[in-house]
Amino acid sequence: EIVLTQSPATLSLSPGERATLSCRASQSVSSYLAWYQQKPGQAPRLLIYDASNRATGIPARFSGSGSGTDFTLTISSLEPEDFAVYYCQQRSNWPSWTFGQGTKVEIK
Amino acid sequence: EVQLVESGGGLVQPGGSLRLSCAASGFTVSSNYMSWVRQAPGKGLEWVSVIYSGGSTYYADSVKGRFTISRHNSKNTLYLQMNSLRAEDTAVYYCARGEPKNPWYFDYWGQGTLVTVSS
Question: Quick one: average pLDDT of A78-88?
């Protein structure tokens, strides 16, 4: 099983600041990685797929990068609605897809 | 508009069974990859099972042999039959659609249904 480790566990930032979230895979997943956002009491929302492609309707302030084992989700300037938990997910190890444990972005 | 509505969750004793349903609208279940993903209280996401458009099914090791995914094409509904339930199966269960061009990622999710396994 491919293990995804996200860091940090919690990121405390102010609106307008830049957020950088990390996801590290226990073995290479090529570019087969997605990012999701989840707000309390809601289902996850797909943000980024294949490491760097924004899903439909996702604002340009969200960007993804990386390949192999190291990936980054960047939110260029945090909006109030961006404070949430973010998960990465790999689809390389078919069909045993796994998620990271999540990074909470909270208001400082 | 794409919508997924789960139902069937509840409280069940260890060793018991439960069947979850996911009614879809705005698209055809049988033409897409459909998955179940669960989230234990206060925890992260765990992929549980998938049914491909062609009908092949796959399961996480944690549920293999106990859970069965299926669909009813005319009802446009996805199911998860859960048997031999354990305390560690307690979670919110989401159904999710595989994004049509990249079906290994989940572009639409239901609101979730809570399954509690406890005596």
Answer: 97
